[in-house]
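Milestone M4 deliverable, item 7.
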Amino acid sequence: AEISSLSSDLASLRKLVDTRDALLKQLKKTRAAFHQRQQLLAGSVSPLRRFPLEILQQIFLMLISDDIYGFSLLDSTGGPWAVSCVCTRWRAASTQWSRLW
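Output delivered:
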């Protein structure tokens, strides 16, 4: 009888642990979604997002002008390629301005 009671208690504990694991998995998924949304929103309030494109373009021009090694249009790690990889807005600011190229 005691073995039967222990087996029943063990089965109940397994169900509780399974329920807890499922809840924990769902909470982690929800936390990840909130974190992703937070990161997205944090980027949208960045002061750089409010800079006029003309100021960004001037900054890009100064950056490239200060490049003592020069840059190659074939090298995607430097020059206007580097700033165009930051975000969509920077890509537009850099690719639409022929002085950078």
